[in-house]
Design goal:
Layout: H1 3-6, H2 13-16, H3 20-42, E1 49-53, H4 59-66, E2 70-75, H5 78-91, E3 96-99, E4 112-118, H6 127-137, E5 138-149, H7 156-168, H8 186-195, E6 199-212, H9 215-221, H10 226-233, H11 239-254, E7 259-271
Parallel strand pairs: 1-2, 1-4, 2-3, 4-5
Antiparallel strand pairs: 5-7, 6-7
Length: about 280
């Protein structure tokens, strides 16, 4: 079996090209709430140069630019990179956007003052390589922040979908552990930073919520990422019934108004040590 064949949908950059708009509309507001905490943890000085690895649709990179940072945003999805450029132009913000594999960054050593990655590096097939590359391109003394999932049972969106599926099916299809959850335990996340050779590692838990105008709106848009789309495809031919059950469950909880589903994540910050 080749490495590519073993990759999960969320780890295949070309699949993200088909989810740019939905991802930005549905999921980015949630990830952005966590990204703001990661940005604060970097303690950036005015005009600092920052690299955002696996920057997605660009919400975090644009927020950094608004705060006066000099931002380079990289993503392996050409569709995501194109959307970042569109948004930067519309907002009148300087943003250097490149299509690039974050596991092999094409920058010299010590090119940036800081780095971050929100649900990005943790998705790479070789997450340690992705974080090691950030360590390489950040100057000694600079900080690197990552955001990853923790407490998957507290990720209410997926929990509600799986509960809806269980109500329709006799059992759930077998599935591998999502790549996003490889670092859900504090020790695993700590070990990732240590494997990349970083020091002064601090890991804090944070909560955020995914908000939707109503249950039907979310049910119509729940395939906002390749992994979510693949999960729904795994329920075929019962997908429509499961989405209907999902919507009904949310309507019982929230009525016809706004839906708010909670999630928990880790925000890890570490320092690039002096080079020997």
């Amino acid at each position: 079996m080749t490495i590519q064949a073993a990759l999960q949908p969320d780890q295949k950059p070309q699949l993200w090209d088909d989810h740019v708009c939905l991802y930005e509309e549905v999921f980015e507001p949630l990830s952005q709430r966590l990204a703001l905490k990661a940005i604060e943890a970097l303690s950036l000085k005015p005009g600092a140069s920052v690299i955002d690895s696996a920057a997605g649709a660009g919400g975090t990179a644009l927020e950094l630019a608004r705060r006066g940072a000099r931002v380079t945003a990289v993503d392996a999805s050409a569709g995501m990179a194109a959307r970042m450029k569109e948004r930067a132009t519309a907002a009148g913000l300087p943003l250097d956007v490149l299509v690039m594999d974050g596991q092999r960054l094409a920058f010299p050593d010590a090119s940036f003052d800081a780095a971050l990655s929100v649900f990005g590096v943790i998705l790479y097939p070789d997450a340690a390589a992705g974080l090691s590359e950030l360590r390489r391109v950040v100057k000694p003394g600079g900080r690197i922040a990552l955001v990853t999932w923790t407490e998957p049972d507290a990720y209410e969106l997926v929990r509600e979908i799986r509960t809806a599926a269980t109500s329709v099916l006799s059992g759930l299809p077998a599935s591998a552990l999502p790549a996003q959850l490889r670092f859900k335990d504090r020790d695993q996340f700590q070990a990732l930073f240590e494997a990349a050779g970083l020091s002064r590692i601090a890991i804090d838990a944070a909560a955020a919520s995914l908000k939707a105008p109503c249950a039907g709106w979310l049910a119509d848009r729940v395939a906002f990422a390749p992994g979510m789309a693949a999960m729904l495809a795994g329920f075929r031919p019962h997908e429509a019934r499961i989405l209907d059950a999902f919507r009904s469950r949310l309507e019982r909880r929230f009525g016809n108004g706004e839906v708010e589903l909670y999630a928990r994540a880790f925000i890890g910050v570490a320092v690039v040590p002096a080079r020997r």
